[in-house]
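Section 3.1: Structural characterization of target chains.
Under the original work plan, the team committed to producing a structural model for every single-chain target entering the pipeline before any wet-lab resources were allocated. The record below documents one such target. The sequence was received from the expression subgroup and is listed exactly as submitted; it comprises 386 residues.
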Amino acid sequence: MNSTMDTGATGAAGEDPRGSAAPTLDIDRSDPAHRAWLNEAVRKVQADANRSADTHLLRFPLPGEWGVDLYLKDESTHPTGSLKHRLARSLFLYGLCNGWIRPDAPVVEASSGSTAISEAYFAGLVGVPFIAVMPRTTSREKTRLIELHGGQCHFVDDPRTMYEQAAALAERTGGHYMDQFTYAERATDWRGNNNIAESIYSQLRCERHPVPTWIVATAGTGGTSATIARYVRYMRHDTRVCVADPENSCFFDGWRTHDPHAVSDRGSRIEGIGRPRMEPSFVPGAIDRMMKVPDAASVAAVRVLDEVVGCKAGGSTGTGLWGALKIVAEMAGAGHKGSVVTLMCDPGVRYLDKYYSDAWLAEQGLDIGPYLRTVHTFLATGHWTG
């Protein structure tokens, strides 16, 4: 069968520009059955967004006379229970529309758990297999939820090898390596379209400080902090963006020293955030401030959140909350008024055997007592001693 290939060269179709006849090719990927499957898959993913109401913005109680309001964007109310539901939806739409996700071919992801739960959900929604490549230390509850949504778990002993093992597994199975750490920042529409930043500003519209002074995020892929920071600049808000980073993560050091090759020699104890390498989706230039938060402080913060608000949250929420409380203390101490927003990333029920277990804290050598006293003293007196 004769066919044509447009190489961008001048000359008649099928004619080699050097003057001799050349073979021609025509690859048609518009198979009606595949296009019908793709259209239905995209519809299902878009329908999930239409079914999901916006997540709540919770107030953390502070003395009114401070003139500073603190809010937590509760992303645990998504259908798969975490901030990563937004990311997984964006990654699936990106992969489907790029032609990377195909019927019967597995989607493979490197994840510490929450992204894998959400991606397993969307894989089940569009009818493709899903395999999560995860650290062996991932909480048992996360593993259970991945399997509940029809996914499989492939464990690795060294979290630093997740990337290579996920890519190799995708190649062996003929599947697609989703690679959230590369594509998180580009799969999300940071200009708006109901992303998390647009939602925060919309929900603050009727508050006494509708434009937050600070938004405090944490970083796993870095996609959320990039989305928020880009949106702030695009909309010309005066908000500043801070990223709170846990122990055993390289993001703080890489940001501080402008080193894109910074690494950490061990994995983070705070699941979902902190990375051993500078991820492609982490955008240091968009971030105004970074904090290094001790893991014991992160755990203390979620314990206080449970005491004060009645919500159990994961350790990554504690990392961001600690950073937000420190910023509130700075603002109140300087007599500045305004609002601060941080994120409730996922529910604490996934970590009852970790961050809410005194036995686990002892095993890890973490003493949360001094950090609990810092927060309790601050809330009672307005003085930050940490």
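The longest helix spans residues 32-51.
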